[in-house]
Amino acid sequence: PLDSSIVFNTEPEALKVTKKGNESSRNAAALIAKALEKIKDIISENEAMLGDLDAVAGDGDHGAGMTRGSKAAAEAANWLVKEGAGAQTTLAGAGARWAENAGGASGALWGAALIAAGNALGDDKDLDLKTYTHAINSFVKSIQQLGGASVGDKTMVDTQVPFAEVFENSISQNLGFIDAWNRAAVAATTAAKATANLTPKMGRARVLAEKSIGHQDPGATSFSLIVSTISSMFK
To answer: How far apart are CA 208 and CA 46, in angstroms?
Structure first.
């Protein structure tokens, strides 16, 4: 269950840019907006498949919720970038819109994680590989803290933790951002496939655990699709 002490606004706040980001942050924000457009497209293309996976032991709404969330997040990011927003403001707006529109636990988790990543990037930092690594780790930690899942529970955390670990290890081996991301995306895809062999320990799927065995976790699958489609931006 989600941490009940964390409250999300039910009334959407108007998007605004109170202070423009510096050049480094604005450039990052533009890439974030482009990535969210890619995410929106890949999730929309796979909405039915994700819904079918979720219906095995859940309520079948993962694909639809992710589609609504990513579409709203992409629209928010594009608007904010045009207004001169930095990475933090862009991800804050995108995360809020994702949570508001996606609904369900997954929407809340994605919204909070995008905001956490944005907080790590800031609007006025000269962004480097260390900062990007911190942002990715903040994204994953936010989801673990809010959702309460650990590796092995058959959730999106099973793909996110190896993604973050491989990215950080690759950076420590002096790889650049693109190579590190590509390596991490491959690790996430492998981990998503491996969730088919896991027994769910969280949410509704836990009750229907036997039905879930042999099928990938929908949240892990959508995350692997997302990071893989971002890799395609770099080709």
So the answer is: 24
pLDDT digits (tens, 9 = 90+) for 175-219: 999 999 999 999 999 999 999 999 988 776 666 677 889 999 999
Q: 151-177: per-residue pLDDT in tens?
A: 999 999 999 999 999 999 999 999 999
pLDDT tier at 9, thresholds 50, 70, 90: low
Three-state secondary structure readout of 11-67 = CCCCCCCCCCCCHHHHHHHHHHHHHHHHHHHHHHHCHHHHHHHHHHHCCCCHHHHHH
The answer for 149, left when phi > 0, alpha when psi is -120 to 50, beta otherwise, is beta
Q: What does the alpha-carbon distance between residue 21 and residue 118 come to, in Å, rounded to a whole number? A: 12
H-helix segments, 83-217? 87-102, 104-121, 129-147, 157-172, 177-194, 203-207, 209-212
- Mean residue pLDDT across the chain: 94
Give the number of other CB atoms < 10 A from CB of residue 84: 15
Say if CB 222 and CB 156 are below 8 A apart. yes
Whole-number Å distance between alpha carbons of 29 and 85:
7
Q: Residue 201 corresponds to which tokens in the numbers above?
A: 């320990």
- 223 burial (CB, 10 Å; 0-12 / 13-18 / 19+) is buried
Structural domains in the chain plus CATH codes:
23-233 (1.25.40.340)
Report CA torsion sign: 79, 130, 161, 143.
Answer: negative
Spacing of C-alpha 28 from chain mean position: 16
